[in-house]
Amino acid sequence: MRQESWDTPDTLDYFVQKNVAFCNIDQPLIGRSLKPTEHVTSPVGYVRLHGRNYDQWFESDKCADRYNYLYSESELAGWKDKILRIAEKAQITYVVANNHFEAKSGVSGLQLKHMLTRQRVKAPEPLLRRYPELSKIADPTDEDTENQTLPLLA
User: Fold this and answer.
1) Rounded distance, CA 40 to CA 7, Å?
2) Which residues pair with 3 in a beta bridge?
3) Which of 9, 27, 29, 101 could form a disulfide with 50 if both were Cys (CB 3.0 to 4.6 A apart)?
């Protein structure tokens, strides 16, 4: 459902009737790609960030290459506002960073968490070493909390 033809009033109404969550995605805008949306068609708000690797989206040797993209702070800031608006309409909101190449999804997730909570975040030491720019917003995880999953918004 990454094509703009899914973004119609009829489709959205159908999703509402069937209680199906619409996936609001960020992706390279190539051809008839679905542009960023803020639709909430069920109690679940859903956002999926694929990255914007235009050069390797269709021309990569390996499927994973297309997700080799590190979001800038300004790109994530635009999604922060969308996520907040989606969360206002939904009972629960999921945000999935799918730019997983070289753990870039972890960086994006931590940056978004920091933007949404306005608090410093915890990050694994190897991620901090690989992406030193995280030191502006993140501290190393404690031994006790290293393997816990923490909610984005409490």
Assistant:
1) 12
2) 33
3) 27
